[in-house]
Design a protein that fits this description.
Radius of gyration: 50 Å
Largest sheet: 5 strands, mixed
CATH topology of the domain at 545-672: Heat Shock Protein 90
CATH superfamily of the domain at 545-672: Histidine kinase-like ATPase, C-terminal domain
CATH architecture of the domain at 545-672: 2-Layer Sandwich
Number of helices: 24
Mean pLDDT: 81
CATH class of the domain at 545-672: Alpha Beta
Strand order of the largest sheet: 1-2-3-5-4
Low-confidence stretches: 1-25, 540-545
Number of strands: 5
Strand content: 5-15%
Length: about 675
């Protein structure tokens, strides 16, 4: 019997669904997913255990994420559920997989998904849906110029076209696939396509072309040692199909040679019993036609037993037909009729119309009484098959036509979109030019304003220094006045008193000494205290190097008087304020003033530490509080922080704000030393 369906089944299994790219991330959940997926895909484990492992793998996937590893894992899970016939889980998982694919806009995975959906519907024998998904997959792979995968899809389309008897379409699809595989030196897949192409030629009764194509596949198998993923019997399958082509040409002796060569393959009965049963049927039929009785009933019964064990009813029916023919030759009409009826029953149960027609024709030739009924049944089935084939072909041509129309519409839409994009870009460029010109003008105004503000800041700072100098001079005058009064008044009187009490130098009786000594010691103490006070009050309080530091100290003193926050100021002695310009000092003063004001208003802090220090060639200012913190990504509205940032930028400095909720805020500023 023709081996086409068997070969197509092998090819369908072997092509499978390609695995998606794997970019693993190192974490325990991902490791668990990969571990359980590997167990689920292990053919040596118990079937139920494999289903459980697949479920566990799904439970470890973080479906909130959408990276390549998640998409690859969902693809493998879906394929496993399809293989396990877990249809509900397959549908749910593949739906999630499709959502992730659409979100990622990944053409590679999109092609794989459509290919996988085509495989799913092909398995269910819903060929129109399978064909439609293969068309989508082919388009996705062509878009990314993945010609090898395009060849895979073309081969699968060819298999679908063979199943609906569109042999010319199958030939065209597989020929295209062969061209892609030859360019990419993908010889293993080329063998699959050549086998499918050979079946197309066989069904078109172009047997010589079929033989030539299958011989080409055998040469590739031998040259590159190409093996099936399940077993090593590609060569045997090709030999069987060549034998079938010769058998159809009634070259039975030549066909027997190819069937025998296939049967000589090592372990074929154990590792591929289905192919072995086909070969027994085929070689037995050739023996039957050449009138050679090599224990034919044993051959056919053995093949029938194998097909029954594999639940392949249509091929078991063919074994019954051959047994019926064999017993007809032996004139055993009872057994011949028995096997003819068995063939009818099994082909009908298998829902295999062509096998059923063959069985009906044979049964009518054996049982003339039922021949009219069988002929009528054959006519009915033929009519329904012709209608179904036409409808099916029309459906596929309609799918292809719709796909072409959609492509044309898309091309038109793309052209319109291109024109629209060009116009939009032109308008956008004009708008950008307008914005650039406007921003340049605003920038110039901003620079002029900044220059004016710097001058104003410098003038304000100079006025502050002048005012501070005047205040210090007034304090100095007052201190001198007090010192003079203390020196000329109190000191003279005390000295006079001491001199008067110097009577002790002349009179040292016990009474006088006892009476005067306390007064003398007390007067000495007062004299020393007043002298120290006079000395301190008479010190110079000119501005000098410490004038700016005094400004900062006065600011903190003032804040501590009016604020509930305890401000603490620390200035590194290494800081030499004469190294900094008035503009720098003025901006630093304003930054500190604004920072402290923000702490008072918003921080709810109890304490704030302020530090000025030198590190390398930079001056650093840090202001740290223990308040409630601020939200850096969503700061409160106001211009205080903006002003600080602006002043830091004007100083060519850097600003860093570190804040955590209820853990306070630290503002760090560094400015370079200007020579």
């Amino acid at each position: 019997m023709n081996k086409s369906i068997f070969s197509l089944a092998i090819i369908s299994i072997l092509f499978g669904c390609s695995q998606m790219g794997n970019q693993p991330e190192s974490n325990p959940a991902n490791d668990s997913v990969q571990k359980y997926l590997a167990l689920a895909e292990n053919d040596s484990l118990d079937f139920k255990k494999r289903v459980e492992y697949n479920d566990k793998a799904l439970s470890f996937i973080d479906l909130r994420r959408n990276d390549s590893l998640v998409r690859e894992s969902l693809g493998r899970l879906s394929k496993n559920y399809l293989y396990f016939n877990q249809n509900k889980r397959f549908i749910n998982t593949s739906r999630i997989w499709l959502q992730k694919i659409k979100q990622s806009n990944d053409s590679v995975i999109t092609g794989e998904y459509y290919e996988f959906k085509g495989n799913y519907f092909k398995k269910l024998r819903i060929y129109d849906s399978a064909f439609a998904y293969y068309l989508k997959s082919e388009k996705a792979y062509l878009k990314i110029k993945n010609y090898e995968k395009t060849g895979v899809i073309l081969t699968k389309k060819g298999i679908i076209q063979l199943n609906i008897d569109d042999y010319l379409g199958a030939e065209l699809s597989t020929k295209k696939a062969c061209l892609y595989f030859k360019k990419n030196n993908s010889y293993r897949r080329l063998v699959y396509s050549l086998m499918t192409l050979g079946n197309s030629y066989h069904n078109m009764q172009e047997y010589n072309k079929a033989i030539e194509t299958l011989n080409e596949a055998i040469i590739l198998i031998k040259t590159y040692n190409i093996k099936n993923e399940r077993n090593n019997f590609y060569k045997a399958s090709c030999l069987n199909n060549i034998g079938n082509a010769l058998r159809e040409q009634k070259k039975y002796k030549d066909a027997i040679g190819f069937f025998k060569s296939a049967l000589y393959e090592k372990n074929i009965r154990k590792e591929d019993p289905e192919l072995y049963a086909y070969l027994l049927n085929n070689i037995g039929y050739c023996y039957l036609k050449t009138n050679k009785n090599y224990n034919l009933h044993t051959l056919f019964k053995t093949s029938k037993k194998i097909f029954d064990s594999l639940n392949i009813k249509n091929e078991s029916a063919i074994s019954d037909l051959y047994l019926s023919e064999y017993y007809m030759e032996k004139k055993d009409f009872f057994k011949a009729n028995h096997h003819a009826e068995s063939a009818l029953k099994k082909s009908k149960e298998a829902n295999a119309p062509y096998y059923y027609i063959t069985s009906l024709t044979h049964a009518g030739s054996i049982n003339p009484k039922k021949a009219p009924f069988y002929i009528k049944e054959v006519k009915r089935i033929n009519d329904s098959l012709l209608f179904a084939e036409r409808t099916s072909r029309n459906q596929y041509y309609k799918i292809q036509l719709e796909t072409e129309e959609i492509n044309q519409q898309k091309e038109t839409a793309l052209k319109q979109r291109t024109y629209f994009i060009i116009i939009t870009l032109a308008v956008f460029l004009i708008a950008i030019l307008i914005v650039i010109i406007t921003r340049q003008r605003l920038k110039q105004k901003e620079l002029r304003l900044q220059h004016t503000q710097q001058k104003a800041n410098e003038e304000i700072y100079q006025l502050m220094l002048v005012q501070k100098t005047k205040e210090d001079e007034a304090r100095l005058q007052e201190k001198k006045r007090i010192a003079m009064e203390l020196h000329d008044g109190v000191m003279n009187k005390l000295t006079s008193a001491r001199l008067n009490l110097s009577v002790l130098s002349f009179k040292r009786d016990a009474v006088t000494v006892e009476h005067c000594l306390p007064h003398i010691e007390e007067i000495k103490t007062i004299e020393n205290e007043i002298r120290n006070l006079t000395h301190n009050l008479n010190q110079k309080t000119t501005l000098g190097d410490n004038s700016y530091e005094k400004l900062l100290t006065d600011l903190i003193l003032e804040l501590n008087q009016i604020s509930p926050v305890d401000f603490a100021l620390a200035i590194d002695p290494a800081v030499n304020w004469e190294n900094y310009t008035d503009i720098q000092k003025m901006n630093l003063y304003r930054i500190l003033q604004e920072s402290c004001q923000n702490i008072n208003k918003h921080s709810e802090a109890q304490k704030a530490d302020i530090r000025f220090f030198i590190d390398g060639e930079k001056l650093y200012l840090t202001v740290a509080d223990d308040g409630i913190g601020i939200q850096l990504n969503n700061p409160k509205k106001g211009i205080g922080l903006k002003n600080i940032k602006y002043r830091v930028k004007a100083l060519n400095g850097k600003l860093n704000i570190n804040s955590k909720v209820n853990q306070g805020t630290t503002l760090s500023i560094s400015i370079p030393l200007e020579n």
